[in-house]
Amino acid sequence: MAYKGRYKPKNITKYIGDHTKVIYRSLWERKFMVYCDTTDSVLEWGSEEVVIPYLSPIDGKWHRYYVDFLVRVKTHKNIIETKLIEIKPKKQCVPPKIPEKKTRRFITEVKRWGVNSAKWKYASEFAKQKGWQFVILNEDHLSV
């Protein structure tokens, strides 16, 4: 079951973008929003504020990838780092296993993996060009 909703930042000065239109598409995204909003080392954050064009391997066309989060953090060494953060279920962070019988579900998972891999490749290149980091988080990272 997917959980969606609006998030109202408590520290609106930290939010990059329109703080009245912050949408979460999973409870993991909401949890990360609360973390960004309430953690002092997070200087700024935004949700779906960075758009990266990517070439889909499925249809060969250009699409727009809205990265889940842009975050600027101050490290314990007082270095400011900028990160693009994608939040995905762990099972979508690895290629699908080939089953004995190829089902529709398997075909869907292969397509999803292809699109996600393309998005992440373009996001990594985009971040690297700007001196940023691209990070994928899953439920293991967010359950701590």
What this model shows, in words?
This protein is α+β, with helices and mostly antiparallel strands and 144 residues long. The chain has one domain (5-142): Trna Endonuclease, Chain: A, domain 1. Helices cover 30% and strands 28% of the residues. The chain has helices at residues 27-38, 104-130, 139-142; strands at residues 5-7, 22-24, 42-47, 51-55, 62-66, 69-74, 80-87, 133-137. Strands 3-6-7-8 form a 4-stranded mixed beta sheet. The protein has a two-stranded antiparallel ribbon with strand order 1-2.
Task: Summarize, please.
It is built from three helices and eight strands. It is an alpha+beta fold and 144 residues long. Helix 2 links the parallel strand 7 and strand 8 (133-137).
- Report strand %: 25-35%
Question: In the CATH scheme, what's the topology name?
Answer: Trna Endonuclease, Chain: A, domain 1
Overall structural class, as computed from helix and strand content, comes to: alpha+beta
Per the principal axes of the C-alpha atoms, what is the gross shape? globular
Helix percent reads 25-40%
- Determine the number of helices (DSSP H or I, runs of at least 4 residues): 3
**Number of DSSP strand runs:** 8
| Overall structural domain count | 1
Based on the coordinates given, report the CATH architecture.
3-Layer(aba) Sandwich
The radius of gyration is: 16 Å
Q: How would a crystallographer describe the biggest sheet?
A: 4 strands, mixed
